[in-house]
Amino acid sequence: MFKKALLRLLNAAQIPLDVDSNFEPNQLSQFRISVSEAAAMAGAPPVIIWEREVESLLHYKELIPRLEEALGKFSSRDSAEVIQPVRSTVPLQKHNGFLGLMPTYMENDGVLSTKLVCFYNRGAGSTLPSVSATVLLLDPESGHMKAVMDGEAITNMRTAGASAISAKLLMRHGAEVLAILGTGQQALSHYKAFTEMLSFKEVRVWNHRREGAEKFRRSVGGPVTVCGSVEEAVRGADVIVTVTRSIEPVLCGRWVKPGAHVAAVGACRPDWRELDDSLMKEAVVYADSREGAMAESGDVILSGVEVFAELGDVINGIKPAYREKTTVFKSLGMGVEDAVAANLVYEQWKAKAYKL
Ligand SMILES: NC(=O)C1=CN([C@@H]2O[C@H](COP(=O)(O)OP(=O)(O)OC[C@H]3O[C@@H](n4cnc5c(N)ncnc54)[C@H](O)[C@@H]3O)[C@@H](O)[C@H]2O)C=CC1
Ligand SMILES: O=C([O-])C1=[NH+]CCC1
Fold first, then answer.
1. Strand pairing of 111-120 and 131-138?
2. Which ligand 2 atom is at minimum distance from the Cα of 268?
């Protein structure tokens, strides 16, 4: 079926083929033309890949190594590897939200993408999601849009994947207790990534509304302890994930065990906080992007601390991983993470389509 469609495309694009039509799509390389080039020349519409399919195509086992490589490439500051400006944001004041634009170009990998993400600080009664996103994947040579895909699953999984990498690199050896603060979409993806890729003896969760934490416990199925306070959840924890929509500190340094690792995912505006000053000042602070953290992280800006290193610096062996110290990974989210995740989804989609 796909082969026929491809032949129609090649025909429409008037690409001369002096071979019989009995070829496999991967033989296109003989003609020095890629599927996306053929599609671009034929003016083909982009492939549309929605949430369920993205979820079925994306797996942490494949995604996390790609993210790790991408974080390293980003921190090398080599423009042939990654060009990714700090996200531009447009306030949606009436709706208590922001539109973020996150373009990325990976020249060496031939990946060009942009994510459009709206994020909201919704009131308690709202049933709308806090994050709504779409990723556009383009052919860098022609500018042709190859794919439009759901960005929510990508955002949830690539964010959790980056946090899991931070824990792998920065948590103390033999870590046993994981605490998750917040029980929304990111909490679910973090639970999945952390329990799939790392191993913990105990997982504790806290939410500012207990019923939210109970619902989370029921939906993940695995063993989870619901805690009545942040202090109860984090006392003695080796790894703490903060995935709340709070704009004021929820996690205080005095409750955090020395040597614990904190993946701080919420509070992505310059005046929003999740962590208090004492924790920020006690910890060695790592970030996904130094520029991103200096521009967008209230925890970094308002505490006045320095970002010690990017995660990519640790991956590249340029900066040490202080596993024995208290560490904070301040995650803001990066376009390059979306780019590699979207590219992986597209590769998997093509592999599936070829088999049809
Ligand atoms: N670093 C990154 O790459 C990304 C960060 N985020 C951020 O992560 C956070 C979580 O996102 P989602 O899970 O998608 O949102 P969500 O709305 O699904 O979950 C938010 C959780 O925070 C809780 N919450 C709401 N107000 C609170 C408050 N005042 N104090 C404590 N908890 C509160 C909610 O009950 C819920 O459990 C948000 O701040 C979002 O902006 C989201 C996507 C990517
Ligand atoms: O990277 C991302 O997509 C986001 N970071 C904060 C809200 C959305």
1. antiparallel
2. 6
- Give dist(CA 190, CA 74) in Å, integer: 22
* Ligand 2 atom closest to Cα of residue 151: 3
Residue nearest to atom 40 of ligand 1 (CA): 266
Beta bridge partners of 47: 147
pLDDT for position 263: 99
Ligand 2, atom nearest to 115 Cα: 3
Rounded CA-CA distance 46/22 in Å is 25
The pLDDT tens digits of the residues spanning 205-216 come to: 999 999 999 999
Rounded to an integer, the average pLDDT of 21-48 is 65
Ligand 1 pocket check for 205: Cβ under 6 Å: no
pLDDT of residue 8: 53
Question: How distant is the alpha carbon of residue 264 from its chain centre?
Answer: 13
Contacts of 125 (CB under 8 A, 6+ apart): none
In contact, 283 and 327? CB cutoff 8 Å: yes
Residue 181: the pLDDT is 98
Which residue has better confidence, 297 or 356?
297
Identify the residue whose C-alpha is closest to ligand 2 atom 4.
333
Q: Which ligand is nearest to the CA of 216?
A: 1
More confident residue, 13 or 133: 133
Q: What is the arithmetic mean of pLDDT over 117-142?
A: 93
Whole-prediction pTM: 0.91
Whether 207 lines ligand 1, by a CB cut-off of 6 Å, is yes
Q: Facing residues of 103 across strands?
A: 114
Q: Would you say the CB of residue 242 lies under 6 angstroms from ligand 1?
A: no
